C-alpha cells in the first residue's frame, strides 16, 4: 500500500547547518538598531518639544509685550483726553468770569509761558497697581486768530516697560452758541402745549418740560436736571410726531417748504443726501429717568422704553451778552448797515445821540428806531448793527444780518423775508440747495432787555400775558452786572450753588470761598424798570420792563392787534423775557430766552431754520452771540519707542 510522505520537522538547534551565534549577533545588532532609533526619535521629539516651548514662551512674551504696549497707548490717549477736558473746564470758568470776553484767551499764553493755571499730570496711574501711567506736557500754544488758541499736547504712556507717545493739536475757540440749534430754547422751565401746537425742530429747556394737549414735535426733546431751578429733568404730558414719510409728504407742498429738510433728504440715495440737522422721523427723549436719584432704573422710570437709565441733558448756558462797546466795535469793523429805499438808516451804530421816532432831542425815545418794511421798500440789512435804545420793527426784510438792541425789541406786526430759503422734500442734491439758501434772507434780532410781540396795550394781550410775567410764574434768577443799565438788578447775593464761573480749581465742587455774590432779578417784569417812556406831552411816564420807550398811545396806533400777527421770520434772542400774544401763527427761525410767556389763538407752528445749526451743512454766520465751543482735535500723530 502506498503511503503519503510525511514531512519531518527539524528543530533549528538540531540542524547541523544552524549557526546560533550568528543569529544572536543579528538579534543583538537589530536590538541595538532599534534602541538607537528610539533614542534618536526621542531626541528629535525632545528637540521639537523644546523648540515649541521656546517658541511658545517667546510668543507669550511677545503677546504680553504687545498687550503692555497697547495699554501704554491707551494710557497716553487717556492722558490727552483728561488734560483736554481739564483745560476746557478751567478756561470756561475763566472765560465766563471775564464777561465772555475774547481777551480771556491770554489764559492759554500764561499757561504755556509760566505753567500758572493748571498742573499737568506726571506719572499719573491709570490702574490701581500703578503699572500703567501717563505724563502730559504742553509744548506749544498758537494764537490762530480772534477767539482761537491751538495747543500742542504730548502724552507718554508707560506699562511694564513698554512706552507709547502720542501728540495732539487741540483747538479752543469761540463759535455760535449751541442754543441756536433749537427751534425753541428756554433757560427756565418749559411749557409747551395746547391745541394745534407744532414744532418742526428740536426743543430744549434748562429745566422740566410740561406738555399739554399733546403737541406735535417733529424733533428731539431735551429736559435738564437743574439745582438752581429745583428741576429734576422730567417731561410731563404727551406729544405726537410725524413719521419720515408723513413729514416729507405733508411739508413739501406750497407754503410749507420753509420747514427743515429730512435726513436723508432723499431715501433713494441716503448716503449722499445726509443732513446732520434733518428730521429722520425718530424723535429722541433726553429726559432724566432717575426720578429718585438712586442710580438704578426702577419700575416706571423707563420713559422711552429702551431698558437703559437715561440721565437727560445737561444745563446749556445761555450766552451772556457782552458790553455795548464790544458789539459796537464789531458793527463798525464789519461795516453793518440798514437801508430802506436806498436811504441809509443805520451805519453800524445808532446811539443815544440820535433823535428817536419823535424827532426831538432829550426825550426818552432817543437812541430808539422804528423799522417798517414793505414789499416795494423792504428793510435791507447787511451785517451786524447796534441800536442803543429800543428796536420797533415789522414788515418785509431783505438781506442778512443781526440787529442788537441795547434794551427791548418790539415786534409790531408780521415780519417776512422778501426772499426766503426753501427745502424740497425729497432733495437729491442738498449741496446745491445749501449753496442757494446761503444767499437767501436771514435776520437776527438780539435784545439785551426783552423781546415783546404785539400791541401790549390791548385787553387781549394784557389778559393772556401779564399773569405769566410775574411771580410765582416767573422766578428770581441770576443776571449780569451789565443788566443794571436796564434796571434788572434787585440785589446781590450768594446762592449756594456752583455757578459757571465759580469752579476756580476745576474740581466740580463749590468749595469754601468760591460762592460769589451775584446780581439777581426778582422776576417781576410788570414792575417799573427805573426808566421812562415818551407819552407825547413832554412829561415822561414811568416805564415797565415789558414796555417800550414809546408811549402807550404810540404803541396802540402802530402795533398790530394780537389776532392780526400771523408770521415772524427771524432768529430771536432775548436776554430776559420773550412775551407776546398772536393769532394763528407761524414762526421761522429760533426762539431763545430766559423767561417766556407766549399766547396764541387757533394754532402755532415753530419752524427751525437749518442755517443756524452750528455743525450743519448750511450754517450761515450772521454775528449772533458767541460761546466757547467744545475743544476740537485738529491733529493727531503717534510715535513708538521701546
Please characterize this protein's 3D structure:
With 642 residues, the protein is of the alpha/beta class. The longest helix has 78 residues, at 20-97.
Radius of gyration: 38 Å
Summing up helix and strand content along with how strands pair, one would put the structural category as: alpha/beta
Low-confidence sequence ranges: 1-16
Q: Quote the beta fraction.
A: 25-35%
Question: What is the straight-line distance between the termini?
Answer: 104 Å
The number of helical segments is: 7
Number of strands: 36
The average pLDDT value, as a whole number, equals 88
Proportion of helical residues: 10-25%
Quaternary arrangement of the chains shown?
single chain
Give a brief description.
By secondary structure, the protein is α/β, with parallel strands linked by helices.
What order do the helices and strands come in, and which of them pair?
Layout: H1 20-97, H2 106-114, E1 124-125, E2 132-145, E3 148-159, E4 162-176, E5 184-186, E6 190-193, E7 197-200, E8 203-205, E9 209-212, E10 216-217, E11 221-222, E12 225-226, E13 231-232, E14 235-236, H3 244-250, E15 285-286, H4 324-334, E16 337-340, E17 343-347, E18 349-350, E19 369-373, E20 379-387, E21 391-405, E22 409-417, H5 430-437, E23 442-447, E24 451-453, H6 459-465, E25 477-478, E26 491-493, E27 518-521, E28 528-533, E29 541-544, H7 552-558, E30 567-574, E31 577-582, E32 585-593, E33 595-600, E34 604-608, E35 626-628, E36 632-641
Parallel strand pairs: 5-8, 5-32, 6-9, 7-10, 7-34, 8-11, 9-14, 11-15, 18-20, 19-21, 20-21, 21-22, 21-23, 22-24, 23-30, 24-31, 30-32, 31-33, 32-34
Antiparallel strand pairs: 1-2, 2-3, 3-4, 4-35, 4-36, 12-13, 16-17, 16-20, 25-27, 26-27, 28-29
